[in-house]
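FAQ
Q: What does a multi-component entry look like?
A: The components come first, one per line:
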Amino acid sequence: MGSRKTTPLKDFSLGTHRCSVDLRLEKLGMVPFFDDLDHDELRVINQKFSATHHHADETIYHQDERARMLRVVVHGAVKLVRHTMEGKDVLLDMLEPGEYFGNLSTTGNAVYSETTRAQTDVCILSTRMNDFRSLLNDYPNVAMRVLDITAERLQSSQEKIRHLTTLPVKERIAHILVMLSEKFGEQSAYGLLLQLPLSRKDLADMAGTSTETASRIMSDLQDRNIINTGRQWVAICDIDRLADIADG
Amino acid sequence: MGSRKTTPLKDFSLGTHRCSVDLRLEKLGMVPFFDDLDHDELRVINQKFSATHHHADETIYHQDERARMLRVVVHGAVKLVRHTMEGKDVLLDMLEPGEYFGNLSTTGNAVYSETTRAQTDVCILSTRMNDFRSLLNDYPNVAMRVLDITAERLQSSQEKIRHLTTLPVKERIAHILVMLSEKFGEQSAYGLLLQLPLSRKDLADMAGTSTETASRIMSDLQDRNIINTGRQWVAICDIDRLADIADG
DNA sequence: GCACTAAAATGATCTGGCTCAATTAAGGAA
DNA sequence: TTCCTTAATTGAGCCAGATCATTTTAGTGC
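Then the predicted structure of the entire assembly, as tokens:
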């Protein structure tokens, strides 16, 4: 494995990124609950959204802040974190372009139930919650899709609970890597590369374990040639064996 | 503290239970997403539901079965369980009258993602998923409320993940007892009695621990006069101290 | 009241994963 | 190429909680 001098990860920086109307429309069209809409409808909806950029590691909003916006990832990856007073973070999800976050509900005093942080430089489209709600009124199909997607997320959240309570750490980590590869995997010289910066701590916070344990497990996986990994990056060499580990 | 000879729990058996139209309407009216509707609208909706009874411990539907129905608890308590091939169950929730379960989504090949079992004798109203969906089309307000409730459940599922990954078992159990008391608590001679049969195994499966550990913790709580407990029942004597334990 | 059964309690032992404490090395910056 | 920061690794000891094996007891049914 010769001497590498740079991350295999691509450059997410927004230096050149221009949020053209076309790009916005394209990304909005990728949002699962907008995929029934035609081009003209998307143009109308696009009006309601405004774009913002955030640098990697910047916090987009904080847990417990008053929740006013619904957002969509256009570029980059967003990390969804719930934290405890003791400073132990739980990493709930990593979002890719086309996924939404923020708040859906119009219940008066809603607050965000998690903190979201830019995992790379990101571009985000935001709309006021109320605008989004009236949009749901105008497009009942979209409302149904939003319901479906929320129900799906509930499912997978419950599946995560099952993992946390029944599986040993090694299986949990294997599982997480498989999931991430479905979202962020990209063929490369190093194997199926997860196209986002991903530290041992991130993995640990996702698996509900300590950084040290995550590190030991990753080392073991690398020794067995199942993955290939460096500082903040992971590539999967043998997805089948990894999947085997993931379910016992 | 004298010698008790019978459970303090009330009798849930359906021997005498008759699902009169009035009772059905009352319970449907309690369902959070129907609470905007007036009496006449409820009567229409009621037509779409049919009632079934199940004895305690009976399975209502199995995980991975094809999901066709949406159901509402009318009488009794329903246990929501996800199980693993290794036979380790995870108890996701206990539902009280007025709560819904089953499937919301119309995605073609949906299957139930959990098993539901009658925790007591129960009476359930069911409707075909498709009928429910068209109902959501006819009553957009209801659709919005369903979305809100699903989003709320997602929140609390994520909060559960936080607990499982960051809190020690004792705190998790204390927390679960507090939650259950909000749903099932009822003043009684023994304290705030949880009005449902609840074994050490149920608690263990909710907290993601072993029956033995759950038992030890319950014994300790009883020794400290925080709870009062017997076979399949729990009463809370000192909810404040319990809440203190629940958050460190 | 007595006997029976499944739930609960309890004891003893073992271990996965955590914590604390260094050490090593990857990869960006200059 | 070298330096420097911070991520990652590795080791050693420890402990919460699991597991296994009994014993006890609550509560039901007779």
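Q: Is there any commentary attached?
A: Sometimes. For this entry: The domain at 21-164 of chain A is CATH 2.60.120.10 (Jelly Rolls).
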